[in-house]
Amino acid sequence: MATATTEPVRLPPALRLPKMVQAVLFLTALQYRVAPRLSRHYGGPFTINLPVFGKTVVIHDRDLVKDVFSTSFDLIERPTKVLGQAFGPGSTFSLLGKEHSERRKLVLPNFQGRRLKNYEQIVEDEVLRETAKWPEGKEFETLSTMTNLTLNAIMRATFGERADALDELRVVIPPLITLGSLMQRMPPIVRGEYGRWSPGSRLAGYRRRFDAVIDELIAEARADIDALPERGDMLALLLQVRYEDGQPISDRHIADELLTLVAAGHETTASQLAWAVERLRRHPRLLSRLTEEVDAGGSELRQATIYEVQRLRSTIAASLRTTKTKVRLGEWVLPADTNVMVDFQLAHESDVNYTDPETFNPDRFIGTTPPSFRWLPFGGGINRCVGAAFANMEMDITLRTLLREFRFAPTDAPDEGRNFRGVAIAPSKGALAVVYRRPQAKQSDRDSVAVADHSS
């Protein structure tokens, strides 16, 4: 792991271009072409200088990644100035050190075991609802469907089933998430409220509407306190949990946490599902094998496919950490307040980490789990995504249902490019598909629960 040091600063080689040019290269979709070239050019880590973020060391080597994710938060911590500010001071993304660890202990169990199992039917219901009007034999974008079904599923799992509240949140949450994420990449002066139509004022208005709904739902839940133990939604669960000293999470922090859960678990999973469609249509033999497996009630290849889609088409580009003091990281010495960017694409496409890394091959994960510190779609360490198990379950149930209900026509069209949407990276053409409803799909198939075990 990284260690504190008094050695002279020694940074990896730096990209010598104006800061704004570097911003264009690394804060847009261009980074997916630029980062691999720079990594090859420098032969390993390199340093960039970005607006808002400042000096940033880009790494992907397994040992360095392990050191960063394993180092004490006394030396290296996750910066809060981006997502933390977008979601509020009570978000897990805003909390540091002991406060973060304590909150994580309260939130993580709600995405594991029996509670996770309870959300499976919600996901399948939403898949069937959103695909009911899919056209047959006509090319269309699937990303919008994936976005709707993941939003509806995570909202029902998070807020409960009150229809009017969900209707308002469906209107408010998407622009709140997208605008909030984009605003945090801007200089502070741009984020201010400068009149009704300024981005800052619009964002504040969306947040007030969100908080109003959450306040009403919290008050309603507390008015029927005896019913809380019977509910399975995240709002009810967060109202019941207590820290070790017996104190509850404050209402404002609950609102921030709920927004975080929806934002982190909605657009990223939707984009990942869209990438699955984009990849599978270009691999017809794999598509046939997956369909045969679904019909047989299996799940091993489907799970391996999920892992491989996440490897080659991660919806999050990187994970950031910031040094709190001067530290030695491998052969490098980083001063305090230096950002460290763990680049997921570089790690996932490294020929040191994977054999034939640029080939889409789910069979590499058959009978095994992805390797630590080399497979990084959910980040790592104490800041690893708390909703990783939920996202995996949601992808598994969605793909199982889609393959059971539809036949996807293969395509020889060029791969879709990467499009950054403010929160996640999605297929540039929206994951185009042509489908035909499978006549053999029966109600008995729909009632099947032969899926991967999500309870562990």
What does this structure look like?
It holds the Pfam family p450. It comes from Mycobacterium cookii. Its cofactor is heme. One of its GO terms (molecular function) is iron ion binding. Belongs to the cytochrome P450 family. The protein is of the alpha+beta class. It has a domain at 1-89 and 317-376. Helices cover 47% and strands 11% of the residues. It contains 17 helices and 14 strands. It has a 5-stranded mixed sheet. A 3-stranded antiparallel sheet has the order 1-7-8. It has a two-stranded antiparallel ribbon with strand order 5-13. A hairpin with a 2-residue loop joins strand 7 (327-329) and strand 8 (332-334). Helix 8 runs antiparallel to helix 12 (251-280), helix 9 (163-183) packs antiparallel against helix 10 and helix 12 (251-280) crosses helix 14 (300-312). The longest helix has 30 residues, at 251-280. The chain is globular.
- How large, in whole angstroms, is the Cα Rg? 22 Å
- Helix content estimate: 40-55%
Which sequence of strands runs across the widest sheet?
A: 2-3-9-6-4
Structural class: alpha+beta
Tag the structure with descriptive keywords.
456 residues, alpha+beta, five-stranded mixed sheet, three-stranded antiparallel sheet, 17 helices, 14 strands, globular, oxidoreductase activity, acting on paired donors, with incorporation or reduction of molecular oxygen, Putative cytochrome P450 138, heme
